[in-house]
Design brief:
- By secondary structure, this protein is an alpha/beta fold.
- It is 51% helix and 17% strand.
- α2 packs parallel to α10, α3 runs parallel beside α4 and α9 crosses α10.
- It starts with a helix and ends with a strand.
- 55% of the residues are buried.
- The protein binds adenosine-5'-triphosphate, 2-(4-methyl-thiazol-5-yl)-ethanol and magnesium ion (MG).
- Adenosine-5'-triphosphate binds next to β5, α8 and α9.
- Its EC number is 2.7.1.50.
- Its cofactor is Mg(2+).
- Pathway: Cofactor biosynthesis; thiamine diphosphate biosynthesis; 4-methyl-5-(2-phosphoethyl)-thiazole from 5-(2-hydroxyethyl)-4-methylthiazole: step 1/1.
- One of its GO terms (biological process) is thiamine diphosphate biosynthetic process.
Length: 262
Protein backbone atom coordinates (compact mmCIF):
# COMPACT_ATOMS: atom_id res chain seq x y z
CA UNK A 1 0.00 0.00 0.00
CA UNK A 2 1.24 3.50 -0.82
CA UNK A 3 1.11 5.44 2.46
CA UNK A 4 1.34 9.02 1.25
CA UNK A 5 -1.63 10.27 3.31
CA UNK A 6 0.04 8.94 6.43
CA UNK A 7 3.29 10.69 5.48
CA UNK A 8 1.50 14.00 4.92
CA UNK A 9 -0.37 13.75 8.22
CA UNK A 10 2.82 12.88 10.09
CA UNK A 11 5.02 15.59 8.58
CA UNK A 12 2.47 18.38 7.85
CA UNK A 13 4.45 19.78 4.90
CA UNK A 14 4.46 23.55 4.52
CA UNK A 15 2.83 24.44 1.20
CA UNK A 16 3.45 27.99 0.01
CA UNK A 17 0.41 28.98 -2.05
CA UNK A 18 0.32 31.96 -4.37
CA UNK A 19 -3.24 31.49 -5.53
CA UNK A 20 -6.34 33.42 -6.51
CA UNK A 21 -8.71 35.46 -4.35
CA UNK A 22 -11.73 33.25 -5.19
CA UNK A 23 -10.31 30.04 -3.71
CA UNK A 24 -7.92 31.20 -1.00
CA UNK A 25 -10.00 30.16 2.01
CA UNK A 26 -11.23 26.92 0.41
CA UNK A 27 -7.66 25.97 -0.51
CA UNK A 28 -6.33 26.67 3.00
CA UNK A 29 -9.14 24.65 4.60
CA UNK A 30 -8.76 21.82 2.08
CA UNK A 31 -5.03 21.56 2.73
CA UNK A 32 -5.56 21.60 6.49
CA UNK A 33 -8.17 18.85 6.11
CA UNK A 34 -5.63 16.80 4.16
CA UNK A 35 -2.99 17.33 6.86
CA UNK A 36 -0.69 19.80 5.12
CA UNK A 37 0.24 23.24 6.42
CA UNK A 38 -0.79 26.00 3.98
CA UNK A 39 0.62 29.51 3.94
CA UNK A 40 -0.58 32.16 1.50
CA UNK A 41 2.05 34.85 0.83
CA UNK A 42 2.48 37.27 -2.05
CA UNK A 43 4.79 40.16 -1.15
CA UNK A 44 8.04 40.52 -3.08
CA UNK A 45 9.80 41.15 0.25
CA UNK A 46 9.11 37.59 1.51
CA UNK A 47 8.12 35.18 -1.24
CA UNK A 48 11.66 33.99 -1.96
CA UNK A 49 12.34 33.29 1.72
CA UNK A 50 9.11 31.34 2.16
CA UNK A 51 9.36 29.41 -1.09
CA UNK A 52 12.84 28.18 -0.21
CA UNK A 53 11.79 26.69 3.13
CA UNK A 54 8.49 25.22 1.92
CA UNK A 55 7.81 21.59 1.04
CA UNK A 56 6.26 22.77 -2.23
CA UNK A 57 5.23 25.98 -3.99
CA UNK A 58 1.88 26.45 -5.76
CA UNK A 59 1.57 29.12 -8.47
CA UNK A 60 -2.07 29.67 -9.55
CA UNK A 61 -2.74 32.61 -11.87
CA UNK A 62 -6.54 32.73 -11.35
CA UNK A 63 -6.80 36.43 -10.48
CA UNK A 64 -3.46 37.56 -11.86
CA UNK A 65 -1.87 40.97 -12.18
CA UNK A 66 1.50 41.66 -13.81
CA UNK A 67 2.99 42.50 -10.42
CA UNK A 68 1.78 39.19 -8.99
CA UNK A 69 3.35 37.30 -11.89
CA UNK A 70 6.68 39.08 -11.21
CA UNK A 71 6.46 37.87 -7.61
CA UNK A 72 5.53 34.33 -8.70
CA UNK A 73 8.65 34.23 -10.86
CA UNK A 74 10.71 35.47 -7.90
CA UNK A 75 9.25 32.75 -5.66
CA UNK A 76 9.59 30.09 -8.35
CA UNK A 77 13.27 30.84 -8.91
CA UNK A 78 13.96 30.67 -5.16
CA UNK A 79 12.11 27.34 -4.96
CA UNK A 80 14.15 26.00 -7.88
CA UNK A 81 17.40 27.03 -6.16
CA UNK A 82 16.35 25.25 -2.97
CA UNK A 83 15.11 22.10 -4.73
CA UNK A 84 11.48 22.76 -3.75
CA UNK A 85 8.97 21.40 -6.31
CA UNK A 86 6.88 24.06 -8.09
CA UNK A 87 3.29 23.22 -9.08
CA UNK A 88 1.58 25.53 -11.53
CA UNK A 89 -2.12 26.03 -12.40
CA UNK A 90 -2.56 28.19 -15.54
CA UNK A 91 -6.17 29.16 -14.71
CA UNK A 92 -7.97 30.51 -17.76
CA UNK A 93 -4.99 30.20 -20.10
CA UNK A 94 -6.43 30.46 -23.59
CA UNK A 95 -9.27 32.74 -22.46
CA UNK A 96 -7.19 35.88 -22.88
CA UNK A 97 -3.82 36.61 -24.49
CA UNK A 98 -2.64 37.98 -21.13
CA UNK A 99 -3.32 34.71 -19.29
CA UNK A 100 -1.69 32.63 -22.02
CA UNK A 101 1.41 34.79 -22.22
CA UNK A 102 1.83 35.08 -18.43
CA UNK A 103 1.50 31.30 -18.08
CA UNK A 104 4.15 30.84 -20.75
CA UNK A 105 6.37 33.39 -19.01
CA UNK A 106 6.28 31.41 -15.76
CA UNK A 107 6.96 28.15 -17.61
CA UNK A 108 9.85 29.82 -19.39
CA UNK A 109 11.51 31.42 -16.35
CA UNK A 110 10.71 28.86 -13.66
CA UNK A 111 11.49 25.16 -13.65
CA UNK A 112 7.90 23.94 -13.07
CA UNK A 113 7.79 20.37 -11.75
CA UNK A 114 4.05 19.72 -12.23
CA UNK A 115 1.65 21.61 -14.51
CA UNK A 116 -2.04 21.06 -13.60
CA UNK A 117 -4.99 22.30 -15.62
CA UNK A 118 -8.10 21.35 -17.52
CA UNK A 119 -7.74 20.23 -21.13
CA UNK A 120 -8.55 23.64 -22.61
CA UNK A 121 -5.90 25.39 -20.51
CA UNK A 122 -3.18 22.86 -21.25
CA UNK A 123 -4.05 22.81 -24.96
CA UNK A 124 -3.72 26.57 -25.23
CA UNK A 125 -0.17 26.42 -23.82
CA UNK A 126 1.00 24.05 -26.53
CA UNK A 127 -0.95 25.85 -29.25
CA UNK A 128 -3.50 23.07 -29.76
CA UNK A 129 -7.01 24.28 -30.62
CA UNK A 130 -9.10 24.62 -27.46
CA UNK A 131 -12.30 26.14 -26.19
CA UNK A 132 -11.75 28.20 -23.04
CA UNK A 133 -14.57 30.34 -21.71
CA UNK A 134 -13.44 32.20 -18.59
CA UNK A 135 -11.99 29.54 -16.28
CA UNK A 136 -13.89 26.61 -17.84
CA UNK A 137 -11.97 24.96 -20.61
CA UNK A 138 -12.44 21.92 -22.77
CA UNK A 139 -10.97 20.42 -25.91
CA UNK A 140 -11.90 17.71 -28.32
CA UNK A 141 -9.31 15.12 -29.12
CA UNK A 142 -6.97 12.80 -27.36
CA UNK A 143 -6.22 14.01 -23.83
CA UNK A 144 -3.44 11.48 -23.39
CA UNK A 145 -1.63 12.76 -26.47
CA UNK A 146 -2.20 16.35 -25.33
CA UNK A 147 -0.80 15.65 -21.85
CA UNK A 148 2.24 13.85 -23.29
CA UNK A 149 2.88 16.66 -25.76
CA UNK A 150 2.76 19.26 -22.96
CA UNK A 151 4.99 17.15 -20.69
CA UNK A 152 7.64 16.82 -23.39
CA UNK A 153 7.33 20.46 -24.41
CA UNK A 154 7.79 21.82 -20.87
CA UNK A 155 9.92 18.92 -19.54
CA UNK A 156 7.66 18.40 -16.55
CA UNK A 157 4.88 16.23 -15.19
CA UNK A 158 1.48 17.25 -16.55
CA UNK A 159 -1.93 16.63 -14.97
CA UNK A 160 -4.90 17.17 -17.29
CA UNK A 161 -8.15 16.96 -15.31
CA UNK A 162 -11.74 16.39 -16.36
CA UNK A 163 -14.08 13.41 -16.36
CA UNK A 164 -10.95 11.27 -16.70
CA UNK A 165 -7.66 12.60 -15.38
CA UNK A 166 -4.39 12.01 -17.20
CA UNK A 167 -1.01 12.21 -15.45
CA UNK A 168 2.21 11.86 -17.42
CA UNK A 169 5.86 12.85 -17.62
CA UNK A 170 5.83 12.19 -21.36
CA UNK A 171 6.57 8.48 -21.09
CA UNK A 172 4.77 7.02 -18.04
CA UNK A 173 1.00 7.60 -18.34
CA UNK A 174 -1.63 7.12 -15.62
CA UNK A 175 -5.36 7.58 -16.11
CA UNK A 176 -7.62 8.13 -13.12
CA UNK A 177 -11.35 7.45 -13.40
CA UNK A 178 -12.23 8.46 -9.84
CA UNK A 179 -14.13 11.73 -9.35
CA UNK A 180 -17.66 13.06 -9.59
CA UNK A 181 -19.34 15.71 -11.82
CA UNK A 182 -20.42 17.61 -8.69
CA UNK A 183 -16.75 18.55 -8.24
CA UNK A 184 -17.36 20.99 -11.09
CA UNK A 185 -20.36 22.56 -9.30
CA UNK A 186 -18.25 23.93 -6.44
CA UNK A 187 -15.91 26.77 -7.35
CA UNK A 188 -12.21 26.14 -7.00
CA UNK A 189 -11.99 22.36 -6.81
CA UNK A 190 -9.42 22.40 -9.60
CA UNK A 191 -7.47 25.08 -7.73
CA UNK A 192 -7.60 23.12 -4.47
CA UNK A 193 -6.44 20.05 -6.37
CA UNK A 194 -3.31 22.01 -7.34
CA UNK A 195 -2.60 22.52 -3.63
CA UNK A 196 -3.27 18.84 -2.90
CA UNK A 197 -0.89 17.82 -5.70
CA UNK A 198 1.69 20.19 -4.16
CA UNK A 199 1.25 18.53 -0.75
CA UNK A 200 1.78 15.06 -2.21
CA UNK A 201 4.80 16.35 -4.16
CA UNK A 202 6.27 17.65 -0.89
CA UNK A 203 6.38 14.13 0.56
CA UNK A 204 6.98 12.35 -2.75
CA UNK A 205 9.64 14.45 -4.45
CA UNK A 206 11.56 11.43 -5.72
CA UNK A 207 8.66 10.30 -7.95
CA UNK A 208 6.47 13.23 -8.97
CA UNK A 209 4.34 11.32 -11.49
CA UNK A 210 3.37 8.89 -8.76
CA UNK A 211 2.78 11.71 -6.24
CA UNK A 212 0.49 13.53 -8.69
CA UNK A 213 -1.39 10.33 -9.55
CA UNK A 214 -1.95 9.54 -5.86
CA UNK A 215 -3.14 13.10 -5.17
CA UNK A 216 -5.65 13.03 -8.02
CA UNK A 217 -6.93 9.58 -7.00
CA UNK A 218 -7.43 10.60 -3.36
CA UNK A 219 -9.19 13.80 -4.44
CA UNK A 220 -11.53 11.95 -6.82
CA UNK A 221 -12.45 9.36 -4.21
CA UNK A 222 -13.23 12.11 -1.69
CA UNK A 223 -15.58 13.60 -4.33
CA UNK A 224 -17.33 10.25 -4.85
CA UNK A 225 -17.80 9.68 -1.11
CA UNK A 226 -19.05 13.22 -0.53
CA UNK A 227 -21.62 12.78 -3.32
CA UNK A 228 -22.93 9.56 -1.78
CA UNK A 229 -23.45 11.38 1.53
CA UNK A 230 -25.18 14.47 0.10
CA UNK A 231 -26.88 13.55 -3.19
CA UNK A 232 -30.35 14.13 -1.70
CA UNK A 233 -29.33 17.59 -0.44
CA UNK A 234 -27.27 19.57 -2.92
CA UNK A 235 -23.94 21.14 -3.59
CA UNK A 236 -23.75 23.34 -0.47
CA UNK A 237 -23.80 20.19 1.64
CA UNK A 238 -21.52 18.48 -0.89
CA UNK A 239 -18.81 21.12 -0.39
CA UNK A 240 -18.84 20.57 3.38
CA UNK A 241 -18.92 16.78 3.02
CA UNK A 242 -16.04 16.96 0.55
CA UNK A 243 -13.84 18.72 3.13
CA UNK A 244 -14.87 16.09 5.69
CA UNK A 245 -13.86 13.32 3.28
CA UNK A 246 -10.48 14.96 2.60
CA UNK A 247 -10.04 14.88 6.38
CA UNK A 248 -11.16 11.30 7.03
CA UNK A 249 -10.00 9.28 3.98
CA UNK A 250 -7.17 6.86 4.70
CA UNK A 251 -4.51 5.25 2.51
CA UNK A 252 -6.46 2.01 2.86
CA UNK A 253 -9.70 3.65 1.59
CA UNK A 254 -7.78 5.00 -1.40
CA UNK A 255 -6.33 1.59 -2.18
CA UNK A 256 -9.75 -0.05 -2.00
CA UNK A 257 -11.58 2.53 -4.09
CA UNK A 258 -8.99 3.51 -6.69
CA UNK A 259 -10.00 3.25 -10.35
CA UNK A 260 -6.71 3.90 -12.11
CA UNK A 261 -4.85 2.53 -15.10
CA UNK A 262 -1.12 2.70 -15.76
N1 LIG B 1 -17.20 15.14 -15.43
C1 LIG B 1 -16.46 14.83 -14.35
N2 LIG B 1 -16.64 13.67 -13.70
C2 LIG B 1 -15.91 13.36 -12.62
N3 LIG B 1 -14.95 14.16 -12.08
C3 LIG B 1 -14.71 15.33 -12.69
C4 LIG B 1 -15.44 15.74 -13.85
N4 LIG B 1 -14.98 16.95 -14.24
C5 LIG B 1 -14.00 17.29 -13.37
N5 LIG B 1 -13.84 16.33 -12.42
C6 LIG B 1 -12.91 16.37 -11.30
O1 LIG B 1 -12.99 17.66 -10.74
C7 LIG B 1 -11.72 18.10 -10.24
C8 LIG B 1 -11.38 19.46 -10.84
O2 LIG B 1 -11.08 19.28 -12.21
P1 LIG B 1 -11.52 20.32 -13.34
O3 LIG B 1 -11.02 19.75 -14.63
O4 LIG B 1 -12.95 20.65 -13.23
O5 LIG B 1 -10.60 21.55 -12.93
P2 LIG B 1 -10.74 23.06 -13.30
O6 LIG B 1 -11.48 23.20 -14.60
O7 LIG B 1 -9.42 23.68 -13.23
O8 LIG B 1 -11.63 23.56 -12.09
P3 LIG B 1 -11.78 25.04 -11.42
O9 LIG B 1 -11.29 26.01 -12.44
O10 LIG B 1 -13.24 25.15 -11.14
O11 LIG B 1 -10.99 25.08 -10.19
C9 LIG B 1 -10.74 16.97 -10.61
O12 LIG B 1 -10.57 16.16 -9.49
C10 LIG B 1 -11.45 16.19 -11.72
O13 LIG B 1 -11.09 14.85 -11.72
C1 LIG C 1 -14.13 31.87 -10.84
C2 LIG C 1 -12.71 32.23 -10.91
N1 LIG C 1 -12.31 33.37 -11.55
C3 LIG C 1 -11.01 33.56 -11.52
S1 LIG C 1 -10.17 32.36 -10.67
C4 LIG C 1 -11.62 31.54 -10.34
C5 LIG C 1 -11.63 30.31 -9.51
C6 LIG C 1 -11.72 29.04 -10.20
O1 LIG C 1 -10.88 28.73 -11.16
MG1 LIG D 1 -8.97 25.61 -13.06
Amino acid sequence: MINMLEQIRETNPLVHCMTNVVVTNFTANGLLALGASPVMAYAKEEVADLASIAGALLLNIGTLSSEQIDNMVLAGKAANKAGVPVIMDPVGAGATTFRTSMSKRILDEVDVAILRGNAGEIASLVDVEANVKGVDGSMEGDKIELAKQAALHFSCTVVVTGEVDVITDGSIVHTVYNGHPWLTKVVGTGCLLGGVVASFAAVGREDLVNAAKEAVTYFGIAGEKAYEKTKEKGIGSFQEAFLNCLFTLTDQDVDELRRTEA
